[in-house]
Structure formats: C-alpha cells, structure tokens
Amino acid sequence: MSEPSNEALALMLGNLDSKVADFREINENSHQTMIEQLKKTNGRVTFLEKGFWMLTGGLVIVSAIAVPLFLGLLKSKYNI
User: Fold this and answer.
1) Are 13 and 5 in contact (CB under 8 A)?
2) With contact defined as beta carbons under 8 Å apart, do 18 and 25 qualify?
3) Which one has a higher pLDDT value, 42 or 22?
4) How far, CA to CA in Å, does 75 sit from each of 21, 67, 69?
5) What is the tens place of the pLDDT at every residue in 28-80?
6) What is Dmax (Cα atoms) for the chain?
7) Which runs of consecutive H residues, i.e. helices, occur in 1-80?
8) Are 80 and 74 contacting, i.e. CB atoms less than 8 angstroms apart?
9) 32, 45, 50, 61 from 70: Cα distances, Å
C-alpha cells in the first residue's frame, strides 16, 4: 500500500476539521439548552430542599418537646 500524498492528507484534515467544527457547534447548542433547563430545575429543587429541612427541623423541635411531656404524663399516670 502506498502512502497518501500531501494533497490527500490536507483534504482529509480539512474534512476532519469541518466535522469537528460542526460537532462543536452542535455541542454548544446542546449545552446551552441543558444550562437553561438546569437553571429552571435548580430553583425548584432548592425550594423543595428548603421545605424538607424546615419540616425536619419542626419535627425535631416537636419531638424534643412532646416526647418528654408524653413520658412525664405516662410516669405520673402509671407511677412508673
């Protein structure tokens, strides 16, 4: 097999460069779409996370107050 000429190599590299440029453009458009969707989703997720942590904190506080009161009532009623 003979080696390709310089002209053939230049043609192949030109085609490869064109394909890479097309892929880069498609990739940039795709990333821009993903970034826009991420910004929309991130706000919703952050809101849900804040609600989850508020609920968790409320349950901890209620448990810290209600459980000792409940145990005190049980102790006084049944003389445990």
Assistant:
1) no
2) no
3) 22
4) 77, 12, 10
5) 988 998 888 888 887 778 888 899 999 999 999 999 999 899 999 989 888 76
6) 101
7) 6-78
8) yes
9) 56, 36, 29, 14
